[in-house]
Target: LacI family transcriptional regulator
Amino acid sequence: MKRPTIADIARRAGVSKVAVSYALNGQAGVSEATRRRIRAIADELGWSPNTAARALSGASAYAVGLVVCRPARILGVEPFFMQLISGFETALSARSYGLTLQVVASLEAEIEVYHRWWAERRVDGVILVDLRVDDPRVPVLEHLGLPAIVIGNPRGAGRMAGVWSDDAAALVEVVDHLVGLGHTRIARVTGLPELLHTRIRDEAFTAACSSAGVSDFRLVAADYTGESSASVTRALLSSAAPPTALVYDNDVMAVAGLGVAQELGLSVPRDVSLVAWDDSPLCRLVHPALTAISRDIPAYGAHAAQRLLAAIGGEPVSDFQDTTPHLVVRGSTAAPSPHPPPPPRPL
Model:
């Protein structure tokens, strides 16, 4: 089926293509009656603007960009990004905007994408995720002047507005819960150490443990995958003084940690308690169901997209603190056993 064009509308209306362009773009040069008639014909024919051509002419591309610098295989198994993207789409589709997603292998490649999108007018703005410590992408986007919203703490967002939640408060709640149960040996299996939110959570965990008098606490870096979590968990639980509680930086790592504990013959939560960050169906499908930090991730994404659209429209946009994540207690946490478990059985 041939897509209707401005020329088709012009023939049906008996006017020039220039008049059609004026009418559809809200420009002066045609009478109001002619404008209404042209728009009615455009609707009848099912015409819609060619966004690629509009972008090349300097008009809006009706698209926003998202670049994710992580292995593509992680995106297929980690619920967080899919939920976040669903939130983006909810807000964008309501305004007839599309989401342009690109997965890259390095920050250098990501910066190249921003330069290309800016030069080609492929997107009207971008959403920046996985904010780094001293993030080199921030000054690049500031220099380009491309409207942008940062998913992350404003302390690393430069002059751009950030949509963020208080991860530190959530970590304090987790530590208080575990200490209240009687745990004195707690380990945190972190995400990528170069990410700003990892550092913020590490600082909050360390401060909360110190404040609660927990002297035996550990921070061990992983990379959000089940494989890295399994390796780290096995080493921790096989150590001479294994932790009695483990806090993971995402749900995938927590589920993998649960599997390792069970493989080693340990009972959850009697021998070891487990907590996941970012509640998801994964946390509720395993046995025991995982205690987890919960937040409305689709709403988080929608709030970011709404603010980006406002920035694209020329409105002033400031930082927005979203709802603080909260702890949902399930069957994977309990008081530590007064009797230490036997050494893990060999696999």
The mean pLDDT is 90. The longest helix spans residues 196-211. The CA atoms of residues 109 and 213 lie 45 Å apart. The radius of gyration is 26 Å.
